[in-house]
Structures are given as structure tokens and as C-alpha cells.
Amino acid sequence: MRMSRLFLRTLRDDPAGADIASHRLLLRAGCIRQVASGMYAWLPVGQRVLAKVAQIVREEMDAAGAQEMTLPITQPLELWERSGRNDDYGPLMFRLEDRKQVKFCLSPTAEEVITTIVAGELKSYRDLPVNLYQINWKYRDELRPRFGLLRAREFLMKDAYSFHVDVDDLRRTYQDMFDAYSRVFTRCALTFRAVEGESGEIGGDINHEFMAMAEIGEDDIVWCQKCDYAANAEVARRKSEQHDGGSADAELEKVHTPGMPGIMAVAQHLGTPEGELLKCIAFHLDDGVGLALLPGDRELNEAALRKAVAPRTARLFEDDDFAAHPGLVKGYIGPDATGVALVIADPLVSAPHAWVTGANEKDHHVRNAALGRDFSVAEWADLVAVVPGDPCPSCGSPLSIDRGIEVGQVFQLGTKYAEAMGALYTDEDSEQHPMVMGCYGIGISRIVTAVVEEHHDELGIAWPSALAPYDVHLVAITGKGKATGEVSEAADKLYDELTAAGVSVLYDDRDASPGVKFADADLLGMPTRLTLGAKGVARGVVERRNRKTGADDELPLDGAAEALRG
Amino acid sequence: MRMSRLFLRTLRDDPAGADIASHRLLLRAGCIRQVASGMYAWLPVGQRVLAKVAQIVREEMDAAGAQEMTLPITQPLELWERSGRNDDYGPLMFRLEDRKQVKFCLSPTAEEVITTIVAGELKSYRDLPVNLYQINWKYRDELRPRFGLLRAREFLMKDAYSFHVDVDDLRRTYQDMFDAYSRVFTRCALTFRAVEGESGEIGGDINHEFMAMAEIGEDDIVWCQKCDYAANAEVARRKSEQHDGGSADAELEKVHTPGMPGIMAVAQHLGTPEGELLKCIAFHLDDGVGLALLPGDRELNEAALRKAVAPRTARLFEDDDFAAHPGLVKGYIGPDATGVALVIADPLVSAPHAWVTGANEKDHHVRNAALGRDFSVAEWADLVAVVPGDPCPSCGSPLSIDRGIEVGQVFQLGTKYAEAMGALYTDEDSEQHPMVMGCYGIGISRIVTAVVEEHHDELGIAWPSALAPYDVHLVAITGKGKATGEVSEAADKLYDELTAAGVSVLYDDRDASPGVKFADADLLGMPTRLTLGAKGVARGVVERRNRKTGADDELPLDGAAEALRG
Q1: Which of A9, A68, A76 sits opposite B36 (nearest CB)?
Q2: Staple partner for B282: which of A473, B20, B317, B471, CB 3.0–4.6 Å?
Q3: Does any domain span residue A205?
Q4: Are B425 and B333 part of one and the same domain?
């Protein structure tokens, strides 16, 4: 493609409102343009990258035995009401009505539609398993669209759905998909981890998130450097030991802590390490009140608390809630407060400690509170947020925490959707059962963001070969003198030879300065830059630069196309 | 692909509500399933056809110098208000609001969005021309979705938009697109005609529709068997000659025609050919009333009338309208009726005639009405609908009329959108002008319907090679006896060899009767069927049948894969 004809305008300066490198660079390199908040047009250069990612995903899905199809983007809302997910999604879903007031949504995923279709087509255990996927635009009406493609409202996703006679069969396909995903992200040159994940609106039991490691990632990933353990921080665990609380030697002693409702102030005032304070966090538990206990130097993992009390629901107290519960003194709650239906504690609280904790009285704490003597715990559960250095739940080695971008997720769904949509099969004994399902998503447009986050420098993007819009960026330095025609001619010839050799070339044939051309080449980020000027033509060589490493060398013009055929 | 694993259920019987062959067969062959009225899921077999059509379109667009991109499906309604097309589309467009009450539509086309983007990127005559396209889902909220994919509410379309400095440059790209379209439809094995078309909601001056010839088509196509002339019936013309009305010999004579407001009854009653009657059709013309005159044996082409009186607007009288206009007697209007602002007539009315026409009095007509003596005409225009045998406007030969499916349309748009969205360029003298635009659509999913309409028989679909889901349908007739394993083994081997040779194969490895397998092969319609049974294995041959011609022959098993590599 000749740049003089390419629909591309690069931007010299960082666009306003683009906070992360990938968003800035994708705009500057003319890959995308915003049309509305969180909705983007893919311009020709970006389109080529998007298509390459989609093709890699398609190839790996096909190789894993999944079958491609396309489902409507506009889906009858009635199906979503049947599964209960219309409520689950709430304002996150775009909804509309047709001219006859029939309600539709714009698909965020497609479990309901595909399950309904499969229910209509397949009836017997002999028809299963089947694994179906599509690559299509998806929609989420995000409250705060941001970071360009990372949190967009319209995005390209591969979604697959598998149907099975039982969980064992599901697990085989789940593993196949897991492996296929690993191949996809490897081919896309992403540094990634598969981690235990949260299921979100999809539901389901076991699931893994594929995280591209990136400082700007929206998720914290806990991982062990020694073993395979890795999990989203929301569901990450630490190795914990249950103790019996130890002996209670010193007597309980009330101390005056005026105007010190916070852990840090009390610790400083009393000269006690924060880890010796006992944090008592009040929460609503269905109709009652609960207290969550943890050491003062740890934070509560709210997702862990919710999971620990399920199927009961937990919601943390807000400031207004204390007025209705006089037994709970905000900032001075003790583990033995009155009117509490459930005391739940992290196992860290079971280790021998002489705790400093609230006295259930304004401006007062107590020292030397002892588990078993001064307070008791009804339930034990992992409640603390994991921090770096915590012991790995699998091997006990220190855990690390990094940030990542979720680029894929695989779920073992069980029978939730099959039951809601009536997807039943008949077994060998003519008995009917709901199909067991898995679902598997890859964020195609999100991968583009993650790739740019990982593969860029201060000059621009450095596309990995598999995703580069073009293999080669050919820069003709035509100058102003009599050599102009000669260089143009040689560059045209090289362009034709490369194209004929199957090398895709972006050919900068514009009437622009070398500085402008080199800056654009660095910004656009093709893996190989070829530069041809008057001296090179005279010597019969073309300069080659590796965009990633910056390494330069020369190739004889004669045979350059063959050499680059790769 | 082994049929035992393919997500496919064929239907023995015609599905209810499918009125045309393509709809019936696409459902029966498991290509598509309806999810909501006018919205379809593409199952794996159909998906493969859709993808092949899309790829042909992509290749021809790229070869013609168009650049692929993707525009959002959800588009800000504000852009459509700016162009005035929000009103033009009315209830045909799906509209929705996001959580912040910002209004969007689901794209029926994308002139507004692409013009806005181009306006932001290109500023100079040096940047033009540029031709941009996308292949993406489009939406029309049809009042009566029907005929399956033919009038669907969600459909896959290729839409291209070109931008130019002037009309001459536009015409070059228009011709390139015209030629590319011809190649696309030829590769899709469609019998088609490019005809002069109506512009519909898009607007614009010159445009052509590409019509796939089909009895079930929704459009009438007028075409000349001698020359190149072809047009949609709505805009078709006939060669017409202007006369002076001839002499008026016989005297005007009033006749009693009680209860005969129709042409046929009067003609029979008076023994006069229908062509000797003068039809006077009343219409509203802005604030006044007009009369359209044509011979009694011809029908009015309403689109021609609208065009003839433009920019004034015409709307035909309905029954209720006559009460307010006592000078116009329903069924008995004469060309000299009172209270008429404009009399417009087809040139056929100018030929010498002694007309029978209304007497402007209930139950009465007149004989011998003569142009010039008894009535006059203010404007002449082609108003009659063309009928077969009418003279071609180009060469005078008799015209034919056939039905067609619109599969593509190309428009010369002019500056309508560039002016509305501010897409201006600066010329060599630093003066600003609006860009001149063209737009070009191809109905990808519609092509699938048109192809099945043309390529099917009573047994099922007969896909043309370029679009067939698989090249070969391999049927293994395993029987029941001891030869079963031998046939399966030979068929497996042939399947592997064909696949290795790059031939795509649908392999019927199911445990089903030969009758079921052959019926499915005929229904699904791969170009070549290979049948392998015990006798064939013993003789070392496989039977080959051409789906289209029904021709049978045999191939040696040894080398069959090579022979079919094609």
C-alpha cells in the first residue's frame, strides 16, 4: 500500500483525554477514531490488526473443534428475562424496542440465544458434545467508558459455548479451550497468566481468566513464583493456619483513645504495632448484623466475605447505618459488641495475640483482649486481602501481585442456562437431563490494546510480526536533486518485488521530509523498516532496521525481496 | 468435517411460513434459524457460505483500491438529525438511548458517520480521492419482514463510500465500483443486470441497481434484448414521440354511462378499445390539484409522476378527497374539469385520437374529445408504466420485463452529505469546496438468498463451487455386514487424503441409511458427491455425481484426491 493513497493521518501530539499508552498510540497511529463515548471506528491500519487477531482466534478455535456461526446482535429481551439476566445486567445492557414495541437488547454475550437454538436442534446424547463460537460485536453500556478499547461500549468478542452430557465431558472441552486460549495469546505475543477468576454476570462454578500482564491493567493478579498458583485478587487465597487463640495472661484493660477511630492513630497513641490491633468491621447480613474480624494491618477482601456468608448476602455498613444500631459504636467496635448475629473471623485472628480493640464505647479501646476469654468467633473464613509475601495456598512460597488486562475467560457453567431455556437431552436409558455447558470468551479488540501496552516504546508502537498491519515499512528518501527520480524508480521496483514475493509493504512514497517519514515509521511500528536513499541506490543496498531492537544492517537491493520473504 | 460432529439438523419437511424456495431450503439445509422476526442465526453450514461471499466482496473491493475499515453499528442519532435522514427513515430505523439518555440508532447505512470521520482527517485536494468500505451488520425495522434473508431486519452489508474533488473524479471511481460489482456477482454465479435505479432514502443523482434475476424478486426490471438499456420499472422509460393531437373531425358527443366509473366497463358498453379512452387521474399538487392524462389501456407510473412535477410534490387522490373538490366527479373526470391547477399528460396522449373520456358529470362520458379543441395540456412527461413490447428509449426495440432481487446499488451522491457534515477540502488555490461523494452497497446475506433462488431444484440446493460450504460431500455406505469396517476404513482414508490435498470435505460418517444420506447430500448441495460402498471398495473405485448436472462417473480410489484437487 502506498502511503500517498492510504486513508491515514498520524497525530504528532498526544490526543486529549487518552490516559494510557495504548489509547494514545492507537489514536496517534490512525488505527482508531472515537465516534461516540466508548464507541470506535477502526480505520484501515487498525482494521488490519483487528482482522489478524480475529483470524488467529478463528484458526485456534477451528483447530480445537469449535464450529463458527453468527448470532444476532439484537436479541429478544424475553430470553434474558427467562434466564434472570435482564435484572443481573441492569443498566449495563443496551435495550431497545422495535416498531411493534417488542423489546430487544444488544448482545453483551449470547448464552440465552445459543442455548435456545441448541435446544431446538439437538435432543440426544449422541448429538453431544458440540462447541459453537462466533466473532461478533458486543455491547456493554459502561458507566464510565475509558482507556480507549479497554473499557469500550462496543467491542469485538469471540464467544464460544459448549454443550455436554456431563461435567467430565465438559472438563475435556474446558481443557481444550484453555489450551487453545494459551496458543492464541502466545501467537499474539502477549505475556499472560491464566488465573482463577470471578464469574461476574455470567455465573458458573469454575472459571479462569487469561490476564495480559500490564501496569495499566484493571485487575490485580496474585501469583506464586514457585508453583502454578495464580488468581484474580478478588478470589485469591493465602495459606492460613487455624490456632486456638493461645493463653490469656494479661488482664483486659480499658484505655482512653479520644478522637481516634482509626487503626493507625490508636497504634501510634498506644505504641502498639498495627498487626496487634483487632479490626471489627460491621456488615448487614440479610436481616441481621455481622462482624468481620481481622488483624489491623490487613484489608478486608469484600468478595471473600460475600462468598464466605453465601447464600446469605453481606453488605458493609455505611456511616448512616450506625444510627440504627446503638450497640455498634463507629470506630470503637469491639468483637463482643451487642446485637450481633454473626461473628466471622479470618484465621489470622486465631493466632495467639493480646489484641487491642474497640471497647464498644466512644473514645475507648481495650488492651489484652483474648480469643476465647473476652470474645468468641462463630465462623472462620479467609477474609483478608492477599498482599505480596503472603504464603501461597498451594506451596507456601511468597506470593507476588501484578496488574493485568483480562483478555479471555473460560467458564464451567453447569446447567443454569440449559435449565432456564429447556436445553434437554435424552440419555441411553431414554431419561431426560439438562445439558451441561461451558462458555469461553476472548476480547478481540481488547487484545489490540494489551498488545500495544506490551509492545511500544517512547517513539510509538512496535507490532509483533503476527499482528503487524504490514510486514515492511519502506521509506524512500528521494531528496530534492536530480537523484529524486532514480530513488523513486528504485523504491517503486523494490515495492513491486516485495509485493510479488508475498511481503506486505507500507510504502512511504509521499513528498515529505526524511524526519517526518522516520517519525511515522516509528509511530506506526512495522517490524522491519527499509530505507532507500540516493547513496543506497548508488551502492545497490537498502538499509534495514528492526523496529523492536533498533538493530540496523544493509541488504543488497538485488535479492532483498527474496531475503524478506521470511 | 465429519457430519457426526457437525452442528446440523436438516429438516425433512417444508417449514411453516417460508414462502419462497430459498427461505425453505436455507432452513431445511440447516443454514439459518430465525431468532426473532427478520433476525437470523447463521449456523455453521450457512456461516461458511456467508464468509465466502464476504471474502469475494473483500477481494474485489481491495483489488479496486477500496480500503477496509469498520464503523460502529450504534451511531449517534445527532448525526442523522444533522443530515435530515432521521426523519427520512422514520419507523424504518431502530433507535435506542444509553444510560445517560444519549440517542443512538442501529446503522441502516453509514454516510453520516464516514463523512464526519473523513471531514476530521482529510483537508486537501491532495488527500483525495479515497474509497472506504466496511462489511458489517445493518438494520432496518421493516414493517413486514419476510422471505427469510430477503427482507430481514438484521442483514450483512458491504457499504463503501468514496470522496472526490469533483464529479469527473467521482465518475471514475463509480465506474471502478460498477466493474468490481459485476465481477462480484459473476463470481457468485448470479445471472444479473445492472439497471437504472431509484435512490430511495440515500438520495443522490445517478445510480444503478444490480439485480439478480429471479421470479420471486421484489422489483420489476425493464430491459432491452437488443441494446444495453435496463432500468428498475419505477424509473424505466419508453421511447415516446410528441404529436400535435391531429385533426378534430367528429363532434363532441355526450353519452350515458350509468354506473360505469371504470375504464373496462365503459369500453365494453360503447364498444370502444380501452386505448381510445382517456384516463384522467386526479392528484394533490402541493396546495392545488393536478390531472394526469394517459390512454385507458396504460397504468400510471407514480414514481414518474413524482419526478415529473418535482420539486413540487404529488399525492394521488383517495376516495375521501373528492368531497372537497366538486369539480372532480369520481369515475367521470374529464381533462377539462374545473378547479385544476395543472394538466400533465404522457406523450401517448398527443397522438391523433377521438378520445372517450369523462364528462365531469356523474354517469356520463363524452366521445370524440380532441386535444387542442376540447382540452389542453400544460406539461408533457413520460407518465405511463412501461409494459413488455414498449419501444426501448435507446434503440426502439421491444422492451422486456422480468423480476429481480436487488443485490447491490451504486450511487453518485454529489455533495449532500459533505455539506451537511462539513466535509470540505481546500483546492490548489486555497479555496474550500464540499467533497463530492459516491456510495456503494452490496447485500452480502441477500446474495445468499439470490444464489439459492437461482441454484436449486426440487431436491435441494446446488451451490456454485465458489460459494459451496464444502467442495465434496463424501457418503460412506457402510451397510450392515462384515464389509462395514472395510468401507469405513476406506472412506476415512479417502477423507484424510482429500483433506490433505486441500479439498474441503463434508464426510457423512453417520450411522444412517443410504436413503437418508443421499437425501441430505441433495438437500445440502455440495458440487460433487462421492459415494463409497462395499462394491466400490472391492473394485477400487468411488462413484462421483455432479450435483448440478446429475452426471455420474467413477474415479479410481487411488489418485481420487489428486483428481479432485482441481
Answers
A1: A76
A2: B317
A3: yes
A4: no
A9 domain-assigned = no
Q: Which of A4, A26, A32, A35 to mutate to test the interface with B (most CBs of B within 10 A)?
A: A35
Q: Are residues A301 and A416 in the same domain?
A: no
Q: What is the DSSP letter of B10?
A: -
Q: Which residues of B touch A48 (CB under 8 A)?
A: 68
B110 neighbors B416 (Cβ within 8 angstroms): no
Which member of A69, A75, A113 has the closest CB to residue B47?
A69
ipTM of model: 0.89
Same domain, B60 and B180: yes
**Selection from B409, B383, B209, B392 nearest residue B307 by Cα:** B383
Q: Structurally, how many domains does chain A consist of?
A: 3
Looking at this protein, which amino acid is placed at residue B342?
L
What cell does A264 get? 493507625
Domain contains A18: no
Any A CB within 8 A of B6 CB: yes
Rounded to whole angstroms, the Cα distance separating A156 from A224 reads 32
Q: Which of A72, A96, A122 sits opposite B96 (nearest CB)?
A: A96
CA distance B107 to B411: 18
Measured distance CA(B379)–CA(B292) in Å, rounded: 10
Cβ atoms of residues A498 and A474 within 8 Å: yes
The strand pairing partners of A182, in sequence order, are none
Query: Which of residues 129 through 188 in chain B touch A, CB cutoff 8 A?
Result: 130, 132, 137, 139, 141, 143, 153-154
Instruction: Report the CATH number at residue A482.
Output: 3.40.50.800
Say which amino acid occupies B62.
Answer: D
**Do B231 and B269 sit in the same domain of this protein?**
no
Q: Assess whether B347 and B261 both reside in one domain.
A: yes
Residue type, A250: A
Sign of CA dihedral B138, B143, B148, B150: negative
Residue A282 shares a structural domain with residue A306: yes
pTM for this entry:
0.89
| Residues in A touching B96 (Cβ below 8 Å) | 94-96, 106
B residues 9..68 contacting A (CB < 8 A): 9, 30, 33, 35-37, 39-44, 46-48, 50-51, 65, 67-68
Interface mutation vs chain A, best among B34, B47, B99, most A CBs within 10 Å: B99
Domain harbouring B287, CATH code: 3.90.960.10
Beta bridge partners of B161: B132, B439
Residues B434 and B357 in one domain: no
From B125's Cα to the closest Cα of chain A, the distance in A is 12
Instruction: Say if the Cβ atoms of B42 and A69 lie within 8 Å.
Output: yes
B72–A contact, CB cutoff 8 A: yes
| Residue B304 resides in a domain | yes
| pLDDT tens digit at each of 566 positions of chain B | 999 999 999 999 999 888 899 999 999 999 999 999 999 999 999 999 999 999 999 999 999 999 999 999 999 999 999 999 999 999 999 999 999 999 999 999 999 999 999 999 999 999 999 999 999 999 999 999 988 999 999 999 999 999 999 999 999 999 999 999 999 999 999 999 999 887 666 566 789 999 999 998 888 999 998 998 999 998 899 998 888 776 667 889 999 999 888 888 889 898 899 999 999 999 999 989 999 999 999 999 999 999 899 889 999 999 999 999 988 999 999 999 999 999 999 999 999 888 999 999 999 999 999 998 999 999 999 999 999 999 999 999 999 999 999 999 999 999 999 999 999 999 999 999 999 999 999 999 999 999 999 999 999 999 999 999 999 999 999 877 766 789 999 999 999 999 999 999 999 999 999 999 999 999 999 999 999 999 999 999 999 999 999 999 999 999 999 999 86
* Chain B residue with minimum CA distance to A67: B44
Same domain, A216 and A184: yes
Rounded Cα distance, B134 and B127, in Å: 20
What's the domain range around B408? 48-71+117-237+401-452
If phi > 0 it is left, if psi is from -120 to 50 it is alpha, else beta; for residue B339 that is left
